[in-house]
Amino acid sequence: MANYNLRINGKNYEVDVEDDTPLLWVLRDHLGLVGTKYSCGIAQCGACTVHINGEATFSCTMPISSVGTDKVTTIEGLSDNGDHPVQKAWKEVDVAQCGYCQAGQIMNAAAFLKKNPKPSLEEIDNAMNRNICRCGTYHKIREAVALAAKTK
Amino acid sequence: MADITKTNRRDFLKIAATATGGLFIGFYWSSCDSPKMKVLSTEEVLSKAHNFNSFLSISPDGDVVIYSPNPELGQNIKTSFPMVVAEELDADWSKVRVLQAPLDNDKFDRQLTGGSGAMPHSWERLRKAGATARHLLLTAAANQLEVDMASLSTEKGMIYHKASGKKLTYGEVVMAASELEAPEEVLLKDPKDFTIIGTPIKNVDNDDMFTGKPLFGLDFYREGMLHAMIQRPPFGMKIKSVDDASARSVSGVTDVIQYDNFVAIVGTSTWPLMKAKRRLKVEYESDGNVESTFDHDKIMKELLDSKDARVMRQDGNVDEAFKNAAKVITSEYQCPFLPHAPMEPMNFFAHVKGEEVELIGPTQTPDAARMQTAQLLGIPKENITVDITRLGGGFGRRLRADYVLDAVEVSRRVNAPVKVTWTREDDMTGGAYRPAVRYRFSAALDAAGNMIGFKLRGVGLNAGNSVRQDNFPSGAVPNLLIENINYNSSVTTNAWRAPITNFLAYAEQSFLDEVALEAQKDPVKFRLDLLEQAKSSPTGSVNYDVDRMIGVIKDAAERSNWGKDSNVKQGFSVYFSHRSYVAQVANIEMINNQPVLKKIVASTDCGIVVNPTGANHQVRGGIVDGMGHAMFGNLVFENGLPKQKNFDSYRLIRMKEVPEIDVNYVDSGYDPTGLGEPALPPTGGAIANAIFAATGRRLRSQPFIEQKEFSDLNLEIRRG
Ligand code: FES
Ligand code: FES
C-alpha cells in the first residue's frame, strides 16, 4: 500500500492503495466516481476513458503509480452542469440506448474535438473507432460529434 | 373516430388520495386476468398489500408520475411507456416522470424485458389509464365549474371551458377527482390526434447518463459491503483441487470460499479480487462431457442424418414432390455459440439477513431472481425484495439469474452485504450462450420454377426448437416438412436477442436466394410469388400477416431502387418476428474491383411508431448487432472452455464497420408491436445475398471472417 495524492476534476484526493491498482478502480471503488465504466479491463473498449492532461486515456490499464501529478478529468468533471458542448450534443442527438458506453464515448469525443475542432466525418470515425458500443449507436455518435464540433 | 372502450373495471383501482394529496390510480400494467375490483386505502397501496401492479399519480402541483415495472436496458421503455399514458391524459410532458418499480410480489405477471413484448402487451392498458385519469379530472372540473363535461377540453395539463374562458389546471382538480368513481367506459383518442405519440421524445435518463450518475448495477454501493468474484469450472468439468494460498495473500482479499464447483474470492474492493483470481490455482477434472468445437461440428453434421428427428410441421406430401421435382436444391448452414457480451458485465448485490434477502441490480427478470433465491435458501419468496437498476445492455443474458445466486451464496456465507462482479473474461466464458445450430434446407422446383416442396431440418446444441416451423415460407409451399433435433450439450445456452431467428432468418433468407437463382427468378419477385400463394391457396396454417409482409417487401424494394442500378449489387431479406415485419436490402458497390458495402435500407412494419427516436435506435441497433455478429462473432471451444475471453480476440463491430442505414416504416395503422429484436434477424441474409450478387460467393456459415469464401474478398464498409 502507498499513499497517492491525486488531482481529479480540479480537486485534490488522497488514497492509500497498492501501486498496481488501475486508476479506473481507484475512481470507482475508492473515490465513488462511478461514471467511468469497466467493461473489458484490457484497453479494448473505451468504456473507462478519462482525460489525463486532456488526453483520452484508458483508465483500466493505467496503474495509479504512473498518474503522478497529472490532471485527471472524469465524466463527472467534464463540465459543471452537464453543459459541455459534447454533452449537449449527446442530449440533442439522443445518442444513448443502454447508455453504459456513453461516458467513455463522450470523454473520447471531447478530447478529440479539443485537438481537432473541425474534423471531417472520416476523422470522427477514426477517432471514435476505439470505443465499442454494444448497442450499436455508432450513427448517432458520429452525428453528435459532428454537431458538437459545429456548435462549440 | 375516437374509440369508446370499456375500461374493464377489474383492471382499474383507484384510491382516494396519495399520501401527499392528489389523484392516484392503480392499474394493471400487464396482467390480463385481474382479480376483482377493489378500492384501496393509501396505506394499502404504500404497504404493497394491494392488487394492482402499476400506478399513475397526479399531484396538486400537476406532476404526473407513473410507475414502470419493466427493466430498462436500452429498449427505451422508460421513455415510451409514459409517453402513451401522457398522450391520453393530455399531460404536460415536461411534468411527467417515470419511476422504476421494484419487483412487486405476486402482482406482475410480466415484469421482465424480453421477447420485444412490453409495448404490445401494455399499449391498451396504458392508454386506458391515461384516459381514465383524464375523464376523472374532467368530471371534477365540470362539477366545479357547473358546466357540461362535453363543453370542456384539455391540453398540456390544463382544462379549458371555451364559452366562459375559464381554465383550471389538473392540479387544481385532482383532489376532487380522487373522490370520484372510475368510469365504466372512456374515450380513447383517434391516433391522428396524437400529439406526444409519434414525436421524437428524448430519453428520460439522458442527463444522468451523460454526467456519470450512478444508474447501473455496477455503480451500486452500500456502506460496509464486500466485493466478490467467482471462479467457475469449464463446461463439463468439476473441481479436483484448489490451491488458494497465493490468492489469499493479496492485500484486500478477506476470504476465499469453495462451494459446489465454484470458488469465491471475497475482498474489500474490486482490483484485489482481479489480481487474486489470476493467482488462484484450480485443477479441474472431467465431469462427463468435456466438449470442443471440433466435437460440436461433428455432432451437428452427424445428427442431420439422424433417424430420430422430431417432425414439427408436415404439409402435403414432400416425398412425392421431391420425386417429381425438375430440380432439387440442398444446402447446409451453420452458426457458432455466441456470448451476449453486454457492455456492463454481470453483477448483483445481495444481502442475506437470516430469513430475509435484499437484492439489487441489473436483471431482465427480477421474478426469476427472486424465485431461485427463495429456492436456494429454502425461504418464502415474500421474504425477498428486488430492486432493479438500469441495465448496461442485456441481449437476453440477464434473463438468467446465475450471477444473482452468486451474490446470494457469498452473502450468506460471509454474513455481510456483497456485490458480485463478473470480469469480462467471466462473462465470455460463463455460458448461457446463443446456441450453435446447423440447418439443412432442401427445395423442390417444378419445370416452371415453382417451389413445390420445402424441407428444413435443424440440429441445435441446447437450442430447444431450432426451426420455428410456422414461420414463412410455411403456408406458402404445398409440400413441406420441418424437423428438429436437439442435442444436450454441456455448454449452457439461453435466449439471445431474437432467439433462434437471429440465425434461422439468415439461413432461410440465404437459402431462398439460392432457390430463386435456380428458379431463374428475381429474389424479390420470388418471395412475392410465394406470399401470393400463401394468400390465394394457403397450405396449412399461415401464422403471419401476408399483406403486412408484402407491404415491407415492396417498400424496401422501392426505397432501395431494387434492381435498377447495375453498378449496385443488392441482397434482399425479409423476416417476421416478435409480431413485426422487417425487410432489408444491402447495397454493395464494386469500386476498383473491390466490393464496398455502402448501405442497408430497412423497411419496418411495427404498427404505430410510439417514439421515432427510440424506434430508429432499435432498428439501427438491431441491424448493427446482426451485422457485427454475422461477420465477426465467434466462440471456439477447447476442452470445455472458449478460446475467446475478451474483446481482443472476440471481435465486436466498431464505428468504422457500419454502413449507412436507411430506416423506414410502413404505416399500417396497427397497434404497436415489438421492436427490440425484429430488425436483427434479416440483416445477415441481406448482406450475404449482396455479397453473392457482387462476387458469386455464397456464405453458408457464420462468422463470415472465418469462411474461406470471404477471407480474400476484402469487403470494405464505407458510409456515404
Ligand atoms: S474497460 Fe478500459 S478499455 Fe475497456
Ligand atoms: S449505448 Fe449500450 S453500449 Fe453503447
Structure description:
The complex is a heterodimer of chains A (152) and B (720). Chain A has helices at residues 23-30, 85-93, 102-115, 121-128, 138-151; strands at 2-8, 11-17, 49-52, 55-58, 71-73. Chain A is α+β, with helices and mostly antiparallel strands and 152 residues long. Chain A folds into two domains: 2-77, Roll (Ubiquitin-like (UB roll)), CATH 3.10.20.30; 85-151, Orthogonal Bundle (DNA polymerase, domain 1). Chain A has a five-stranded mixed sheet with strand order 2-1-5-3-4, with helices on both faces. The longest helix of chain A has 14 residues, at 102-115. The mean pLDDT of chain A is 97. Chain B is built from 18 helices and 31 strands. Chain B folds into three domains: 3-203, Aldehyde Oxidoreductase, domain 4 (2-Layer Sandwich), CATH 3.30.365.10; 217-288 and 346-421, Aldehyde oxidase/xanthine dehydrogenase, molybdopterin binding domain (Aldehyde Oxidoreductase, domain 4, 2-Layer Sandwich); 497-717, Aldehyde Oxidoreductase, domain 4. The longest helix of chain B is centred in the N-terminal third of the chain and has 28 residues, at 118-145. The interface between A and B is large, with 59 and 65 residues. One FE2/S2 (inorganic) cluster (FES) binds next to loops of chain A. One FE2/S2 (inorganic) cluster sits between chains A (96-102, 133-135, 137) and B (74, 343, 393). Chain A: This is Isoquinoline 1-oxidoreductase, alpha subunit. Chain A: It comes from Belliella pelovolcani. Chain A: Residues 2-78 form the 2Fe-2S ferredoxin-type domain.
